[in-house]
Amino acid sequence: MEIHAVTASVDLGDAGMALDLAEQIDTSELSSERRSRLLLDKARAYTQRRQVGEAVAVLLEAEELAPEQISPHPLARQAIRDLMQISRRAPIDLQGLAQRATVA
After folding, report:
1. Less Cβ around it within 10 Å: N or C end of the chain?
2. What are the two backbone dihedrals, phi and then psi, of residue 66, each rounded to the nearest 5 degrees?
3. Nearest C-alpha neighbor of 27 from the set 58, 56, 55
4. How many CA atoms are closer than 13 Å to the CA of 95, on its beta-carbon side?
5. Is the full-model pTM beyond 0.85?
6. Three-state DSSP string of the chain
7. Distance CA 90, CA 68 (A)
């Protein structure tokens, strides 16, 4: 249920709460897909806070765990688009994510 609370917090725009909740979740027993989804929600929260470096790092970690959960996912694609707009000069890693998600 904690994972759903993270998602709900991000959806409601409460990035701080989402990040706090996410840090309390023991992910050791989660499948790579569920961990990837949790990381996507963390990335969305960092994006809401305009923390580009943190968001990109978490998206890369999620992509490594389950690439099929990131590039085609509408929420991931939106977060990547938002990060590209926020960034004055998009980091190379973000440019790569954008290309793989075909949002560049």
Report:
1. N
2. -155, 80
3. 58
4. 5
5. yes
6. CHHHHHHHHHHCCCHHHHHHHHHCCCCCCCCHHHHHHHHHHHHHHHHHCCCHHHHHHHHHHHHHHCHHHCCCCHHHHHHHHHHHHHCCCCCHHHHHHHHHCCCC
7. 23
Query: Do residues 46 and 55 touch, judged by C-beta distance below 8 A?
Result: yes
pLDDT values of the chain reduced to their tens digit, one per residue, 104 residues: 789 999 999 999 999 999 999 999 999 999 999 999 999 999 999 999 999 999 999 999 999 999 998 989 999 999 999 999 999 888 999 999 999 999 86
Which amino acid, residue 92? I
**Are 16 and 48 a contacting pair, CB within 8 Å?**
no
